[in-house]
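User: quick one, sequence for these C-alpha cells?
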C-alpha cells in the first residue's frame, strides 16, 4: 500500500512503514532518503486532515522520539520539519486515510492478546490454574501421562 504526499511518499507492507523523500522539496525540508519504521516501534499515528485552504499531515510517533506540541496554527509547518511526517494536500487525503487505517489496524493486532490453548481447544478463557492442574491430574491418574 502506498500514498504520495506533498513532501514525500509513505508505503506500508504490513510490517514496515517506509517514508521516502526525493527531489528539491525533500532537500529543503528534512532531507532526501528513506526511513523504515517497524510497526512495533510506532506508538501512535497523528492525523490532521487537509482542508480546502490548508494542507494536512500524517505523522508516525515512535518511542523515544523527541516531540513537542506545536502552537495553534503552526502544526503543519512543524510537521514539515519532522522526519516521521508527510504533508498532504486535499486530493491526496483518501489514499492516506486508507494507509492510516491499515497501519492502525496492524498496531492494534500487535497488542491483542493471543488466543490461549484453553480457548482454542474449547475451554473457557476464565479457566483457573487450579482447573488446569485438575485436568492434568485426571490424565495422570489413569496413566495417560507418565511421570
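Assistant:
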Amino acid at each position: 500500500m502506498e500514498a504520495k504526499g506533498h513532501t514525500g511518499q509513505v508505503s506500508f507492507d504490513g510490517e514496515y512503514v517506509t517514508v521516502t523523500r526525493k527531489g528539491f522539496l525533500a532537500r529543503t525540508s528534512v532531507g532526501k532518503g528513506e526511513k523504515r519504521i517497524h510497526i512495533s516501534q510506532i506508538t501512535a499515528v497523528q492525523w490532521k486532515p487537509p482542508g480546502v485552504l490548508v494542507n494536512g499531515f500524517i505523522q508516525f510517533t515512535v518511542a523515544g522520539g523527541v516531540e513537542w506540541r506545536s502552537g495553534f496554527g503552526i502544526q503543519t509547518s512543524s510537521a514539515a520539519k519532522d522526519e516521521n511526517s508527510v504533508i498532504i494536500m486535499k486530493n491526496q487525503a483518501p489514499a492516506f486515510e486508507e494507509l492510516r487505517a491499515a497501519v492502525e489496524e496492524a498496531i492494534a493486532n500487535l497488542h491483542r492478546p493471543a488466543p490461549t490453548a484453553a480457548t482454542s481447544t474449547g475451554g473457557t478463557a476464565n479457566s483457573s490454574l487450579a482447573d488446569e492442574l485438575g485436568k492434568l491430574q485426571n490424565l495422570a491418574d489413569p496413566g495417560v501421562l507418565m511421570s
